[in-house]
Amino acid sequence: MNKTVNQKAWFFVLPVLLLVAFNAFIPLMTVVNYSVQETFGDNTFFWAGVIWFQDVLHSERFHAALGRQLTFTFTILAIEIPLGVAIALCMPRRGIWVPVCLVTMALPLLIPWNVVGAIWNIFALPDIGLLGRTLNGLGFDYNFTRQPGDAWFTLIAMDVWHWTSLVVLLAYAGLVSIPDAFYQAARIDGASSWAIFRYIQLPKMKRVLTIAVLLRFMDSFNIYTEPSVLTGGGPGNSTTLLSIDLVKVALGQFDLGPAAAMSLIYFLIILAMSWLFYTLMMRNEDQ
Protein backbone atom coordinates (compact mmCIF):
# COMPACT_ATOMS: atom_id res chain seq x y z
CA MET A 1 0.00 0.00 0.00
CA ASN A 2 1.47 3.33 -1.05
CA LYS A 3 1.41 6.07 1.55
CA THR A 4 0.31 9.47 0.30
CA VAL A 5 2.51 12.32 1.52
CA ASN A 6 0.89 15.74 1.69
CA GLN A 7 3.51 18.50 1.44
CA LYS A 8 0.94 21.29 1.67
CA ALA A 9 1.36 21.41 5.45
CA TRP A 10 4.67 23.20 4.91
CA PHE A 11 2.73 26.26 3.75
CA PHE A 12 1.35 26.67 7.29
CA VAL A 13 4.80 26.74 8.92
CA LEU A 14 6.55 28.60 6.11
CA PRO A 15 5.65 32.09 7.44
CA VAL A 16 7.08 31.21 10.83
CA LEU A 17 10.25 29.80 9.28
CA LEU A 18 10.69 32.91 7.16
CA LEU A 19 10.15 35.18 10.16
CA VAL A 20 12.66 33.30 12.29
CA ALA A 21 15.17 33.20 9.44
CA PHE A 22 14.75 36.95 8.86
CA ASN A 23 15.21 37.80 12.55
CA ALA A 24 18.33 35.63 12.72
CA PHE A 25 19.84 36.50 9.33
CA ILE A 26 19.87 40.30 9.64
CA PRO A 27 21.73 40.45 13.00
CA LEU A 28 24.14 37.73 11.85
CA MET A 29 25.01 39.61 8.67
CA THR A 30 25.54 42.78 10.71
CA VAL A 31 28.00 40.96 12.96
CA VAL A 32 29.78 39.45 9.94
CA ASN A 33 30.03 42.93 8.40
CA TYR A 34 31.64 44.39 11.53
CA SER A 35 34.01 41.44 11.88
CA VAL A 36 35.80 42.20 8.59
CA GLN A 37 35.90 45.98 8.82
CA GLU A 38 37.53 48.73 10.89
CA THR A 39 35.95 52.06 11.81
CA PHE A 40 37.38 55.29 13.17
CA GLY A 41 34.03 56.90 13.79
CA ASP A 42 31.73 59.07 11.67
CA ASN A 43 30.19 55.85 10.34
CA THR A 44 33.20 55.34 8.09
CA PHE A 45 34.38 51.75 7.61
CA PHE A 46 37.54 50.26 6.11
CA TRP A 47 38.14 46.70 4.95
CA ALA A 48 40.18 44.76 7.54
CA GLY A 49 39.88 41.20 6.28
CA VAL A 50 40.48 38.47 8.86
CA ILE A 51 42.77 40.51 11.09
CA TRP A 52 40.24 40.60 13.94
CA PHE A 53 39.82 36.84 13.85
CA GLN A 54 43.59 36.41 14.03
CA ASP A 55 43.83 38.83 16.95
CA VAL A 56 41.11 37.02 18.87
CA LEU A 57 42.52 33.54 18.24
CA HIS A 58 45.99 34.65 19.37
CA SER A 59 44.70 36.61 22.35
CA GLU A 60 45.62 35.30 25.81
CA ARG A 61 42.58 37.11 27.14
CA PHE A 62 40.28 35.10 24.87
CA HIS A 63 42.00 31.83 25.75
CA ALA A 64 41.67 32.58 29.47
CA ALA A 65 37.96 33.42 29.13
CA LEU A 66 37.39 30.28 27.04
CA GLY A 67 39.15 28.17 29.66
CA ARG A 68 36.97 29.61 32.42
CA GLN A 69 33.88 29.04 30.27
CA LEU A 70 34.73 25.39 29.58
CA THR A 71 35.50 24.81 33.26
CA PHE A 72 32.16 26.28 34.29
CA THR A 73 30.18 24.42 31.61
CA PHE A 74 31.60 20.96 32.23
CA THR A 75 31.40 21.42 36.01
CA ILE A 76 27.71 22.23 36.01
CA LEU A 77 26.98 19.45 33.49
CA ALA A 78 28.81 16.94 35.70
CA ILE A 79 26.67 18.05 38.65
CA GLU A 80 23.25 18.84 37.19
CA ILE A 81 22.73 15.84 34.90
CA PRO A 82 23.34 13.10 37.53
CA LEU A 83 21.61 15.16 40.24
CA GLY A 84 18.58 15.80 38.03
CA VAL A 85 18.25 12.11 37.14
CA ALA A 86 18.59 11.13 40.82
CA ILE A 87 15.85 13.55 41.89
CA ALA A 88 13.57 12.40 39.06
CA LEU A 89 14.00 8.78 40.17
CA CYS A 90 12.91 9.74 43.70
CA MET A 91 9.76 11.56 42.57
CA PRO A 92 6.40 9.74 42.78
CA ARG A 93 4.79 8.44 39.60
CA ARG A 94 1.19 8.57 40.82
CA GLY A 95 -0.84 10.26 43.50
CA ILE A 96 -1.46 13.72 44.87
CA TRP A 97 2.24 14.43 45.37
CA VAL A 98 2.98 14.35 41.64
CA PRO A 99 1.67 17.87 40.85
CA VAL A 100 3.19 19.18 44.09
CA CYS A 101 6.62 17.89 43.12
CA LEU A 102 6.33 19.12 39.52
CA VAL A 103 5.29 22.63 40.57
CA THR A 104 8.05 22.75 43.18
CA MET A 105 10.62 21.70 40.60
CA ALA A 106 9.37 24.30 38.12
CA LEU A 107 9.53 27.25 40.53
CA PRO A 108 13.24 28.12 40.06
CA LEU A 109 12.75 28.15 36.28
CA LEU A 110 10.06 30.84 36.59
CA ILE A 111 12.35 33.38 38.27
CA PRO A 112 13.91 35.97 35.90
CA TRP A 113 17.65 35.56 35.41
CA ASN A 114 18.58 38.97 36.80
CA VAL A 115 16.47 38.30 39.90
CA VAL A 116 18.29 34.98 40.42
CA GLY A 117 21.61 36.79 40.38
CA ALA A 118 20.34 39.45 42.78
CA ILE A 119 18.89 36.85 45.16
CA TRP A 120 22.14 34.91 45.33
CA ASN A 121 24.18 38.09 45.62
CA ILE A 122 22.31 39.01 48.80
CA PHE A 123 22.07 35.39 49.98
CA ALA A 124 25.85 34.90 49.75
CA LEU A 125 27.05 38.19 51.25
CA PRO A 126 29.54 37.31 54.01
CA ASP A 127 28.13 39.83 56.51
CA ILE A 128 24.35 39.76 56.08
CA GLY A 129 23.63 36.87 53.72
CA LEU A 130 22.27 33.64 55.14
CA LEU A 131 24.75 31.49 53.18
CA GLY A 132 27.72 33.73 53.92
CA ARG A 133 27.01 34.10 57.64
CA THR A 134 26.35 30.37 57.99
CA LEU A 135 29.60 29.33 56.31
CA ASN A 136 31.63 31.87 58.27
CA GLY A 137 29.88 30.78 61.45
CA LEU A 138 30.96 27.20 60.76
CA GLY A 139 34.59 28.32 60.58
CA PHE A 140 35.01 28.76 56.82
CA ASP A 141 36.71 31.92 55.60
CA TYR A 142 34.04 32.66 53.00
CA ASN A 143 33.86 35.87 50.97
CA PHE A 144 32.83 35.52 47.33
CA THR A 145 33.55 39.21 46.65
CA ARG A 146 37.27 38.82 47.42
CA GLN A 147 38.24 35.17 47.01
CA PRO A 148 38.09 33.55 43.54
CA GLY A 149 37.44 30.05 44.91
CA ASP A 150 34.44 31.26 46.89
CA ALA A 151 33.17 33.18 43.86
CA TRP A 152 33.33 30.01 41.74
CA PHE A 153 31.60 27.98 44.45
CA THR A 154 28.78 30.54 44.67
CA LEU A 155 28.42 30.80 40.89
CA ILE A 156 28.17 27.04 40.42
CA ALA A 157 25.79 26.65 43.40
CA MET A 158 23.53 29.35 41.93
CA ASP A 159 23.43 27.67 38.51
CA VAL A 160 22.78 24.23 40.03
CA TRP A 161 19.92 25.65 42.09
CA HIS A 162 18.45 27.47 39.10
CA TRP A 163 18.74 24.90 36.32
CA THR A 164 18.78 21.41 37.82
CA SER A 165 14.98 21.57 37.75
CA LEU A 166 15.05 21.55 33.95
CA VAL A 167 16.98 18.27 33.95
CA VAL A 168 14.62 16.86 36.58
CA LEU A 169 11.51 17.65 34.55
CA LEU A 170 12.98 16.22 31.34
CA ALA A 171 14.23 13.08 33.07
CA TYR A 172 10.88 12.65 34.84
CA ALA A 173 9.05 12.92 31.51
CA GLY A 174 11.25 10.15 30.16
CA LEU A 175 10.64 7.95 33.20
CA VAL A 176 6.84 8.23 33.19
CA SER A 177 6.77 7.34 29.48
CA ILE A 178 8.24 3.87 30.17
CA PRO A 179 5.45 1.23 29.99
CA ASP A 180 4.77 -0.78 33.16
CA ALA A 181 5.33 -3.98 31.20
CA PHE A 182 9.09 -3.38 31.34
CA TYR A 183 9.03 -3.17 35.13
CA GLN A 184 6.79 -6.23 35.42
CA ALA A 185 9.18 -8.28 33.28
CA ALA A 186 12.11 -7.04 35.36
CA ARG A 187 10.40 -8.07 38.62
CA ILE A 188 9.66 -11.52 37.21
CA ASP A 189 13.33 -11.91 36.29
CA GLY A 190 14.38 -10.76 39.77
CA ALA A 191 16.31 -7.74 38.48
CA SER A 192 17.87 -5.44 41.05
CA SER A 193 17.17 -1.69 41.23
CA TRP A 194 20.52 -0.98 39.62
CA ALA A 195 19.81 -3.44 36.80
CA ILE A 196 16.43 -1.80 36.17
CA PHE A 197 18.07 1.60 36.00
CA ARG A 198 20.97 0.40 33.84
CA TYR A 199 19.03 -1.64 31.30
CA ILE A 200 15.53 -0.10 31.31
CA GLN A 201 15.35 3.42 32.66
CA LEU A 202 18.62 4.86 31.40
CA PRO A 203 18.23 3.63 27.78
CA LYS A 204 14.64 4.87 27.71
CA MET A 205 15.78 8.29 28.96
CA LYS A 206 18.51 8.59 26.36
CA ARG A 207 16.64 11.00 24.09
CA VAL A 208 15.43 13.31 26.85
CA LEU A 209 18.88 13.28 28.45
CA THR A 210 20.38 14.22 25.09
CA ILE A 211 18.01 17.19 24.99
CA ALA A 212 18.89 18.06 28.59
CA VAL A 213 22.63 17.96 27.92
CA LEU A 214 22.32 20.05 24.75
CA LEU A 215 20.07 22.64 26.40
CA ARG A 216 22.23 22.95 29.49
CA PHE A 217 25.40 23.09 27.43
CA MET A 218 24.11 25.87 25.19
CA ASP A 219 22.54 27.78 28.09
CA SER A 220 25.68 27.54 30.22
CA PHE A 221 27.87 28.66 27.34
CA ASN A 222 25.58 31.65 26.74
CA ILE A 223 25.10 32.55 30.39
CA TYR A 224 25.56 36.23 31.11
CA THR A 225 22.94 37.83 33.35
CA GLU A 226 23.31 35.67 36.47
CA PRO A 227 27.13 35.82 36.81
CA SER A 228 27.14 39.47 35.77
CA VAL A 229 24.74 40.39 38.57
CA LEU A 230 26.33 38.02 41.09
CA THR A 231 30.05 38.69 40.66
CA GLY A 232 30.42 41.05 37.71
CA GLY A 233 33.19 38.76 36.46
CA GLY A 234 35.24 39.24 39.63
CA PRO A 235 37.04 39.23 41.86
CA GLY A 236 39.49 40.43 39.26
CA ASN A 237 38.73 38.38 36.16
CA SER A 238 38.32 35.06 37.97
CA THR A 239 34.67 34.56 36.90
CA THR A 240 34.82 36.51 33.63
CA LEU A 241 33.21 34.00 31.29
CA LEU A 242 33.19 34.37 27.52
CA SER A 243 29.87 36.20 27.44
CA ILE A 244 30.98 38.74 30.05
CA ASP A 245 34.29 39.29 28.28
CA LEU A 246 32.48 39.77 24.97
CA VAL A 247 30.23 42.46 26.46
CA LYS A 248 33.26 44.20 27.95
CA VAL A 249 34.97 44.28 24.55
CA ALA A 250 31.84 45.35 22.64
CA LEU A 251 30.31 47.88 25.04
CA GLY A 252 33.04 48.66 27.55
CA GLN A 253 35.84 49.22 25.04
CA PHE A 254 33.56 49.75 22.01
CA ASP A 255 35.86 47.62 19.84
CA LEU A 256 33.22 46.52 17.37
CA GLY A 257 35.53 44.63 15.01
CA PRO A 258 37.18 42.37 17.63
CA ALA A 259 33.84 41.94 19.41
CA ALA A 260 32.12 40.83 16.18
CA ALA A 261 34.92 38.40 15.36
CA MET A 262 34.86 37.07 18.92
CA SER A 263 31.09 36.57 18.80
CA LEU A 264 31.34 34.58 15.54
CA ILE A 265 34.10 32.39 16.97
CA TYR A 266 31.96 32.02 20.10
CA PHE A 267 29.00 30.95 17.94
CA LEU A 268 31.06 28.42 15.99
CA ILE A 269 32.42 26.88 19.20
CA ILE A 270 28.89 26.39 20.56
CA LEU A 271 27.69 24.97 17.23
CA ALA A 272 30.61 22.56 16.90
CA MET A 273 30.46 21.30 20.48
CA SER A 274 26.67 20.91 20.36
CA TRP A 275 27.04 18.79 17.21
CA LEU A 276 29.76 16.75 18.93
CA PHE A 277 27.59 16.17 22.01
CA TYR A 278 24.63 15.14 19.89
CA THR A 279 26.71 12.80 17.71
CA LEU A 280 28.30 11.05 20.68
CA MET A 281 25.08 10.69 22.66
CA MET A 282 23.01 9.44 19.72
CA ARG A 283 25.64 6.96 18.54
CA ASN A 284 24.23 3.47 17.88
CA GLU A 285 20.70 4.80 18.29
CA ASP A 286 19.45 2.81 15.30
CA GLN A 287 20.84 -0.46 16.56
Q: Rg, please?
A: 23 Å
CATH homology-level superfamily: MetI-like
Please work out how many helical segments DSSP would assign. 13
Strand content: under 5%
Order of helices and strands: HEEHHHHHHHHHHHH
The average pLDDT is: 88
Keywords: Membrane, Transmembrane, Transmembrane helix, Transport
Subcellular location: Cell membrane
Membrane topology: Multi-pass membrane protein
Family: Belongs to the binding-protein-dependent transport system permease family.
Describe the 3D structure.
The protein is mainly α. It has helices spanning 10-35, 51-57, 60-90, 97-110, 113-123, 130-137, 148-176, 180-188, 193-204, 206-222, 225-230, 242-252, 256-281; strands spanning 37-39, 45-47. Helix 4 (97-110) crosses helix 7. The two termini are 27 Å apart. The mean pLDDT is 88. It is a multi-pass membrane protein. Keywords: Membrane, Transmembrane, Transmembrane helix, Transport.
